[in-house]
Amino acid sequence: MLFRWPIKFKLFLCVGLLFVIVGVLAVNSLQGLYAYRELAKTISWRADELPLADELSSRIGHAQDSLRGFKPIHDAEIVARPEPLDKTTTKVFFNHNLKAVRDSLQQYRDHLDMDLPQFGQLGDRSRDRETLGQIAASLERLEKSKDEADWLLVPGHVDGLIKQLSQMRDQVDALKPQLYERMRNLSSEVRGQYQTWISISWATGILSSVGLFVLLGLVYSWVTSPLNVLIRGSRRIAKNDEFEHRIHLRTHDEMAELAENMNAMTARFLEIKTDQETKIQQRTQEVVRSEQLASVGFLAAGVAHEINNPLAAIAMCAESLESRVTNLLGSGSVSSKNNASDREVVAKYLRRIQDEAFRCKGITERLLDFSRLGDVKKQPTDLRELVIGVVEMVRHIGDYREKKVEFQCSQHVVAPVNAQEMKQVVLNLITNSLDSLDPGGTVWVELRRLGNQAELLVRDNGCGMSTEVLKHLFEPFYTRRRDGK
Asked: Distance from CA of residue 389 to its chain's centroid?
């Protein structure tokens, strides 16, 4: 069914398949990049917790030191003293350090509350929030206990505060090992994920490769291969003149339509070429026939000219003999009865000699008329009189005396023709018909007017002509007779 789609739909399908392949590869790549970015952000974010935990632990330690009477360290606002601190100074130091602990704790909690990606257990902040909540609760209790009057003088109270601070510090110090443990477990935690993504990447790569091969196959079968067939076929026709070659495509699209149009154009060109070659062959045959007819005309003219003079001499001698024999037989040396009988016989034969001589002379004159073609000019000619003259000439030929020629024409038909050439055409048609007849056969010649045209119809009841004879119809020397006539 896809092969019957128009080529634009096929191209849309190929482009769509290409976009799908590129989209799958892009999504797979972007997913891996985003996962890598989230991991990097999570590690960087959790790494920022380490200084905060160290600072909180240090602040808690300073608070412990202020209760133990130790001089505070690393505090720019407090001047170091070599002697033990008094009660007022201890309260000031403790309150200051406790406030620093509270600020560090709040900063740590704000860091945990930041909107950052949750990447597995490494990004899980619930346990850290719980630990910081416990530290905040302990800090609240410390602040309440220090609000009591003379809380430094209560026996064991300071030790209890130091113990609570120590527990808080232990809780803070426990955050870092937990973070280290999560980082160590990160590899095993994400192993399943990256193995899944590796499998997905391989699968998408293989599917994309298969899709790419399918795309290339479709482009080759729908576009490249048909174009190659068209190019090879057109070159074969153009360079080798193989007009019988046909281009066949099975794509059922615009390519196939182009091939069909090219085949139709080649078929028409071949038809025109064949027709032109046939016409050239016909014209060549006509030229050959014209040369043959010209040769026959020259031969007939020569023969007619040579025969015409002896015929004239025979006719003149016959006339002279007739007059002299009449005078001779009319003398008194011979009996009147015998003279009358002999005179009639001699006169009869002499007149016959004269008639036949003049008839032969007329035939030779007609042959001379046929040979004198002159300039090929058309003049208004009475075709009826022309055909009658040809028919009368043919009737006197001895071979045709036992055959009939019937001419039918009820009116004068005038047409612009060359009289000599038209006589030759009519003579050829009638003699060909007479040659095909058996003794007693008939040739019908009909001349009539059709509007502004003239029609000459020659029919006979002879044997007809075969296809082979029709091919040589206009050749003057072609014959199928054994006698060569």
From this structure: 67
